[in-house]
Amino acid sequence: MILTALYAWMVGWLTLRAAPYGSDIGSALNRLLAWFAERPSTAWITFDRVEFGANVAMFVPLGVIAVLWFGVRGWWAAPVLGAAASAAIEILQAVFIDTRVADLRDVVANTLGSVIGMCLMLLLAFLLSPPHPRRHLQSEA
User: Fold this and answer.
1) Distance CA 80, CA 32 (A)
2) Nearest CA to 83 among 52, 108, 117?
3) CB under 8 Å to 17, separation ≥6 — which residues?
4) Which of 59, 78, 58 is nearest to 67 (CA)?
5) 72-97 pLDDT tens trace
6) How far apart are alpha carbons 42 and 33 in whole angstroms?
7) Is the terminal CB of the chain with fewer CB neighbours within 10 Å at N or C?
8) Number of Cα atoms under 13 Å in the Cβ half of residue 68
9) Phi-psi region of 46 (alpha: psi -120 to 50; beta: other; left: phi over 0)
10) Largest Cα–Cα distance of the chain, in whole Å?
11) What does the alpha-carbon distance between residue 24 and residue 15 come to, in Å, rounded to a whole number?
12) pLDDT per position as a tens digit, 92-118
């Protein structure tokens, strides 16, 4: 429960303040992206792609948390929570924060992140589950 609260606070802090990061990080990011743009092999790394990837990564823990809270059979809660939380964030940004831009792509990226986290947990549950007795007996025959 404490980790869930800390995660929720972190997401709120990142998404519901006037700027997502300070000018020092913005300047470093711009220099890094300019460096990537100068090279043909990395020119595809753009701000939009980095932002999309960051939004995906930010919501992977939500998918993990959802499976921990609702179990493997409640897997469907992860994409629902991811989409609902993301939509709420975008609505709050649109209504209350003039310096932020609400974007449907963020909802897609965040929901994708929660689905990835959910899939990782389902894979882990599958790998850690004991073998099914019926399958074990059939393989011995």
Assistant:
1) 35
2) 108
3) 97
4) 78
5) 999 999 999 999 999 999 999 999 99
6) 9
7) C
8) 12
9) beta
10) 68
11) 18
12) 999 999 999 999 999 999 999 999 999
In single-letter form, the type of residue at position 66 comes to: A
Dig out the tokens for 120 from the structure.
């990782």
Residue 55, judged by CB atoms within 10 A of its CB (0-12, 13-18, 19+), counts as buried
Q: Which two tokens stand for residue 18?
A: 């006037």
Cα–Cα separations (whole angstroms), residue 63 to 14, 42, 74, 88, 100:
18, 30, 11, 17, 25
Sequence length of the chain is: 141
**Amino acid (one-letter) located at 49:** R
Type of residue found at 82: G
